[in-house]
Amino acid sequence: MKRKYSLKTENLLKRMDKVALRQEYVFNKDKIKTLIDKVYIFLKLDVPKVVFCKDITDERFARAAGVAGDAWAARAAGAARAAGAAGVAGVAGDAWAARAAWVAGDARAARAAGAARAAGVAGDAWVAGAARAAGVAGDAWVAGDAWVAGDAGAARAARAAGAARDAGAAGSDYDFDYFVFEHEYLQTHKGNKNDRKALKAYEFFFELKEAGMGYFAEQEGKLYVCPNPIVNLDSELKYHSETKPAIYWKDGLKLYYYHGVNVPEKFILTPNKLTKKDWSKETNAEVRRVIQERMGEDFVKKIGSKIIDTGSLGKLHEIKLPDDPEKIARYVEVKDSSTERRYFLRVPPTINKANEGVAWTFGLTEENYKPEEES
Q: What are the residue ranges spanned by the domains of the chain?
């Protein structure tokens, strides 16, 4: 597939991907402090005292984030509207000038998208609206869109620990779709001093990301800084790990996910200890499915099912659920011929035959399901 943006921008995306998905812990406090001094001086702001925190649950960090949250949200919403209006006017330079002026004047470049998302402003939506309405710098927008869509794999990881944003804090990768857009725009356009100033600010924050700064919140002249978490994703870019936390801070908060579903530590680290009670008491269908998958082939044994029908395509199991409105759950047991692994697929309690249940999983009746014709 032909690249639609410059090689330099492609390399920037790769660099972002490497940082967002790295598995080693990085938190270079000396470099972070030096870069914070540089960016505040560059934006002509009073340099704050830096306070390092181990993760986003640190009380000092949470307190600062909570106090600042409403103000950040208001600023972000205003900036979103301003950027959208400038874009509609069809003047890309002016749009970015307004953006850069707001960043420099409001003094906190990394807060924009983080605060907007925390407030439910839908940052990515207005970014797309403004850029597309402007009708300019098409390749630059394609490059920016690659970040938003997660083409490089980094965007999803960059959005880890949404709790930080919900609390009113900002991520150092706050608005990197803009960074990519601005970077590509200046590959083919002269731009103006505001474009170049904005790009320089973005570069500072990316260097902070590389040095390990993940989230920050400011209060009363102090900047509370948390490290990047280590993030693991599956092939669909969902938070996932079958052996360790999917998102975690060294010696700090650990978050467990299974193909995008947030689950307790037990599900990941000690799945052999999952019981029928864990499964039957769980009201969330997605979490219950994870319990079933983590139990593996021991599922029916642990749950205490009985076989009520055996057919040429598999077996039909029934499980008593006294506390469930349906009172029973039925599963068809099928075997993957290529791996010999057994799977248990839930079917409606009205299904009484194993073959009927297997056909139902394909959206067919027993009469219409012809597995020998499957390719």
A: 7-229, 232-301, 305-375
